[in-house]
Amino acid sequence: MTEPQPPQHPQYPQYPQYPQYPPPQAPGGGYPGGYPPPPPQPYSGYSPPPVGPKNGLGIAALVVAIIALISVVGGVVLGIVAVILGFLGWQRAKRGEATNGGIAIAGIVLGILSSIEALVVIALSVWVFNEVGGTDYMDCLSKAGSDQEAAQQCVDKFQDRVEDQFSVTITTPAPPTP
Fold first, then answer.
1. Which domain holds residue 149?
2. What long-range pairs does 51-57 form, CB within 8 A, spacing at least 24?
3. For the chain, what is the domain count?
4. Is 41 a domain residue?
5. How does pLDDT run across 131-173, given as a tens digit for each residue?
6. Is residue 140 classed exposed, middle or buried when 0-12, 13-18 and 19+ CB atoms within 10 A define those classes?
């Protein structure tokens, strides 16, 4: 019997070995071509974490509208800002990016109401000012100029007119005694 021979591997021809050179460096040691390598790609086995709803615009619309409703002075401007923010928040809710469409609509409604309220208060203030002789008082003060006695007569005349118009008595508080 003959002994089995170990398996023989085919012999491949030997090629000459070439020296390995490092890749060329850009001037100044930067990246070749002037661009850095791309960032590593995320692992494809997992999806990115879910993004929460973007409810900021709707909430901001409601907060600004409430402030506008309370502060009559900035009511018109803040009311318009609340309406704009409310519409932007409502659009986000319609696209599914936010979950507070009702709050955005409340901001729109309160923003409109605060603008109307501010305009009504301004109109009433101007009407009352003209009704009690505010324009006459302003004319009297401009004619008095820097004359303190004439200015005091204007104040007294205006005060008498307000007291007669509204049947009230306006008193000047006494200065505190030390």
1. 134-166
2. 53/97, 53/98, 53/99, 53/100, 54/92, 54/97, 54/98, 55/89, 55/98, 55/99, 55/100, 55/103, 56/89, 57/85, 57/86, 57/88, 57/89, 57/92, 57/98, 57/104
3. 2
4. no
5. 888 888 888 888 888 888 888 888 888 888 888 887 777 777 7
6. middle
